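Work Package 4 report. The design task specified in the project plan requires that, given a folded chain encoded as structure tokens, an amino acid be chosen for each position. We show below one input record used in the internal validation round.
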């Protein structure tokens, strides 16, 4: 029973010979092959993303273009050897420069760095500014594009006559012959800047770091102030020369010292003169004869005596004998041996040319007396200040060692010729000197003020001057600073009169000018070099 119920034995199929390729791989070997394929795919994708393959390195290096730059100004870059347009140094090869890629390969713009103080100093690596040594900071892509994109030229539509090319208008219409004018476009000129300068853009953050400040062009009441030196001297109209009209000898000299002060009416000296003695005697004789003839009934004789007395009196007066002396002679009826000369005005004896006992002749200058209550000051006026100095303008005189005192005066005369030695013109100033503090031959500081009226003015700190140009940096808005050539007039304090170049309300740079000027010069040089390279290509 057991044998009949047992299942039949399983018969194995006959053996068939199989080739190695038809055999299925063992489990361990298959996994190894799969892992190797994955690794190869990852490595290929990595190098494909970089754009270079290990075996293509030699070919890529061969296509790399050489670049040259200035060691002192790294932003000056060229693809040819040459010299730096800013400092003149030879351009050197840039090591490790990457070739530029086009379009799709340049999908992501690399991060660049620039100097906050000199925005044109740009690098693709961190570092320090070669000009001021500040650390370079990253540039925003939007800001970089704004700084590098040039402002397109503006175009304007104009209208011109078809019959007369010189008949042009900015509005459509008909010409002088009744024909319709045709439209055409013209390119407006760009911003005019002085030679060697260019407009620059500086952000508000950079302006704060630079300490940049702005001032305003506005109308102001300006006064041109002329400061110069002046030499004090006596007023020539108040000089008195003591002289005599008779011959004689000096008996007594009351003024013995040069510089002695005298008052009007003070005695100066006495003179003995035989002619004066005889003249006094003749006067007394004529006086006595007149008194005797006054009782005579003959009017003609009496009139003759009176005429003789008047002639003798007139002779004494012509010899500078005053009325008091003549009255004393009439009263005493005694001839005085000497005649006294009195001071005709108060003042100081500047010159003394006589001694006691000296013989004098008619016309000899004995003493010179000056009234110093009013003095003159001769001020040196340079050619550049002549347009602002006029007769009648007020003037102020100051002495360095009396700073709290000021002397007022007026310009009364300007010499018509120029001093060839000093190249100046003398202006005569009349100064009141009631306290006699101003002495002849003193030096003083003169200040003359000429009002210019209410004119357009620009801050003095905003003006940049070179040998050929005078300019200022105008704020053009949106962080743009534009170098603008200007024409200035005289200076008044902290302002210059503005004649041309800017309008009222314009904002100009008043601090950090030299940093902006350096940046503008560098940008203009780089732009000029780029233009020359384009012309060569």
């Amino acid at each position: 029973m057991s044998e009949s119920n047992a299942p039949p034995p399983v018969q194995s199929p006959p053996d068939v010979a199989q080739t190695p390729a038809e055999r299925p791989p063992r489990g361990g070997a298959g996994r190894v092959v799969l892992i190797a394929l994955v690794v190869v795919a990852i490595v290929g994708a990595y190098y494909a993303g970089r754009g270079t393959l290990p075996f293509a390195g030699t070919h890529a290096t061969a296509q790399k273009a050489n670049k040259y730059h200035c060691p002192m100004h790294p932003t000056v870059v060229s693809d040819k050897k040459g010299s730096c347009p800013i400092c003149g140094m030879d351009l050197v090869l840039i090591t490790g420069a990457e070739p530029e890629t086009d379009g799709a390969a340049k999908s992501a713009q690399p991060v660049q760095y620039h100097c906050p103080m000199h925005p044109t100093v740009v690098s693709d690596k961190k570092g320090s500014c070669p000009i001021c040594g500040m650390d370079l900071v990253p540039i925003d892509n939007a800001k970089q594009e704004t700084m590098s994109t040039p402002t397109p030229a503006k175009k304007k539509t104009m209208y011109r006559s078809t019959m007369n090319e010189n008949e042009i208008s900015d509005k459509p219409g008909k010409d002088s012959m009744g024909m319709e004018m045709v439209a055409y476009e013209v390119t407006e000129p760009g911003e005019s800047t002085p030679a060697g300068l260019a407009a620059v853009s500086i952000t508000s953050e950079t302006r704060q770091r630079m300490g940049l400040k702005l001032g305003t062009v506005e109308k102001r009441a300006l006064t041109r102030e002329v400061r110069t030196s002046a030499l004090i001297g006596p007023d020539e109209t108040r000089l008195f020369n003591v002289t005599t009209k008779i011959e004689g000898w000096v008996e007594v000299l009351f003024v013995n010292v040069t510089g002695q002060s005298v008052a009007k009416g003070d005695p100066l000296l006495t003179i003995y003169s035989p002619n004066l003695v005889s003249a006094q005697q003749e006067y007394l004789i004529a006086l006595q004869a007149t008194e005797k003839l006054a009782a005579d009934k003959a009017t003609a004789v009496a009139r003759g005596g009176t005429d003789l007395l008047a002639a003798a009196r007139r002779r004494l007066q012509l010899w500078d004998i005053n009325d008091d002396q003549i009255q004393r002679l009439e009263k005493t009826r005694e001839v005085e041996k000497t005649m006294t000369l009195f001071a005709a005005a108060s003042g100081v004896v500047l010159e003394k040319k006589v001694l006691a006992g000296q013989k004098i002749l008619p016309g000899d200058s004995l003493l010179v007396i000056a009234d110093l209550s009013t003095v003159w000051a001769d001020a040196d006026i340079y050619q550049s200040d002549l347009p602002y100095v006029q007769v009648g303008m007020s003037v102020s005189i100051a002495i360095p060692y009396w700073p709290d005192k000021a002397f007022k005066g007026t310009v009364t005369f300007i010499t018509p010729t120029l001093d060839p030695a000093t190249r100046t013109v003398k202006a005569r100033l009349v100064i009141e000197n009631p306290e006699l503090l101003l002495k002849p031959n003193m030096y003083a500081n003169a200040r003359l003020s000429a009002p210019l009226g209410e004119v357009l003015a620009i801050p003095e700190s905003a003006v940049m001057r070179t040998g050929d140009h005078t300019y200022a940096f105008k704020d053009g808005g949106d962080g743009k600073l534009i170098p603008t050539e200007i024409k200035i007039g005289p200076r008044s304090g902290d302002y210059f009169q503005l004649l041309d170049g800017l309008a009222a309300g314009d904002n100009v740079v008043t601090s950090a000018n030299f940093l902006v000027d350096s940046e503008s010069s560098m940008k203009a040089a780089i732009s000029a070099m780029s233009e020359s390279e384009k012309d060569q290509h």
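The chain has a mean pLDDT of 78. Validation will be extended to a larger panel in the next phase.
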